[in-house]
Amino acid sequence: MNIKIVGDSCFDMNDELRKIPQISLAPLKIDIDGKVFKDDENLDTKDLLKLMKESNNVPKTASPSPNDYMKEYEGKEDVFVVTLSSKLSGSYNSAVLGKNMYLENSREKFIHVFDSLSASIGETLVGLKILELSKLSYKKEQIVEKIDEYINEMKTIFLLESLDNLIKAGRINKIVAKLATAFSIKPIMGSNGKGSIKLIEKARGSKKALRRLVDIIGERGEKIEEKIIGIAHCNCLEKAQKLKKEIIKRYNFKDIIIVETAGISTVYANDGGIIIAF
Length: 278
Fold this sequence. Notes:
11 helices; 2 domains; six-stranded mixed beta sheet; four-stranded parallel beta sheet
């Protein structure tokens, strides 16, 4: 099957994944104090982290436009789109609107838009699953059915090192945040299964939080030997590699993928943040 997988720029990749010709991304935009960045290969996430730290305001983000998506839909391929959770971004709605506009003039074109109910490496795993099914010669309709099941079963978990953006956004009380920082409290957050983010629990200290994250994988994972687990890190490769080693000791995943967060995921995870999906 000749397919194209279109993601938004929260679809985080590494150098190996960027070489896959079937994958292309529509960039979101990030606004920090009026300075606007396109979340593409030219964005320096270390500069982004520096500006976020220096700013008193939470970064603003903007979805790809319907026209941005329409450009990605061009070509003869069947198109499968994977977006950020619709509860976190307007990217899904923009992709659907772009699809409807495109099909007004190309009614025979196949375009299907998936709401990942996730972000970052969660989107990436959905895209890789689509690619896997297409190589196994599944029909388009079968891929849609299988991917809907995959999305509903997937678990996404965040381990935050910095509370800065949560404080700036008013999501956490400043006094509580100061106490959390003083006692080195690290929040472990995850999807609620419907695309929104909830607090799973709090751990004291980075080492304990990382160990607890490994425990949670076992508590929430099913049929682990059949699955790939993905790890996205925000400027903390050493931590991601340590997490990978601990996962290998405890579990028998089919594969483990490490990627670095691009711009949008960097805004979500902040410096030192880890996102996993499986």
